[in-house]
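Severity: low
Component: inverse-folding endpoint
Summary: output formatting inconsistent between runs
Steps to reproduce: submit the following structure tokens with default settings.
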């Protein structure tokens, strides 16, 4: 599971940081992407696409609404990537 694997968690944080053009340590696990980092729908889709490519999984687009912060992204990835 992503949440219990520090290496995978770090990789996922790096992936999200690249899309948000931030350093990984600048991402607060519970900070709302839209409010804290000004993430629009295009960036959210880019995060989703990179996750799918990296972990070779398919995550349904309706899950985007659940991916509101880094902790939520981890939960969604864990659900689909194991």
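Observed output (run 2 of 3):
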């Amino acid at each position: 599971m992503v949440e219990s694997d520090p290496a995978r968690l770090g990789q996922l944080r790096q992936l999200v940081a690249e899309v948000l053009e931030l350093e990984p340590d600048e991402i607060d696990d519970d900070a709302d992407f839209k409010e804290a980092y000004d993430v629009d729908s295009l960036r959210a889709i880019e995060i989703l696409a990179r996750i799918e490519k990296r972990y070779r999984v398919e995550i349904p687009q309706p899950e985007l609404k659940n991916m509101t912060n880094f902790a939520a992204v981890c939960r969604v990835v864990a659900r689909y990537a194991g």
